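Amino Acid Chain and Its Fold in Token Form
===========================================
What this section holds: a protein sequence and its matching fold, both as plain text.
Structure line: whole-number tokens from a learned vocabulary of local backbone shapes, matched to residues.
Purpose: to set a sequence beside its fold so the mapping can be learned.
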Amino acid sequence: MNPRLKSRTTLLTSALFLVLFAPHRLPGKEVGFVAYNCAITPPDGWPLMTNLPPQPGLVAAFGKADKTALLILVVDERNKPAGPMDEQSVINFEAGVENSGGGKRLSGRFFEIAGIKAYERVGNASVKGRHASTIMNVVPADGKFYNVQAMRFDGDATADSEILKALASFRFLKAPSVSIRTSPSGSAAYESGKLAATAFAVMLTAGVLTIVAIMVVRAARRRQIKRDSVTPPALPPTH
């Protein structure tokens, strides 16, 4: 084969490989999770985070480039929802979240996704003195609790258009099933709230540690620049 043609063929093959197998890592593009029958679109510039602390239910996390916000998908397969979210399941879920370090609720509302009654929780939390504004969307479907969480460290998450758009982008790949409630809401919502809050706390701690590291590096650079600016120039050599 002509070397030049072979080179072009190799480049084309490599490009095709990237198109077919790499899109799920591209920020700002929809990321599908076939095993969980769902997908979400992170904001532009929010890459998939790797090397995260292991945590039950944690499917994926995306971080803003300046480390001031996080988007997390948690799927709880351990606890089976008894049906759509209702007042009692919200009470249980809230108790699980607060008792596991998820912070205080500021507001909550019901909403629907794919015809399923879901619940949105807006709150505040802090870990190691670091504050975070939080939003949690919990959807009981396919015998699981889907929890999409967002946290912002430098402001109000509910005022962040990127976060709101990403949360609204969550969807099911195909019509999910939902349990028809035949008994009162049990403890599943409480346990799912605990799991969601634990994953949240782990990520918040990781985010805090990352931010602290960045602040330390920036402070060291500022000190270095300051020293460089006040250091007098060397005297010329004497003859």
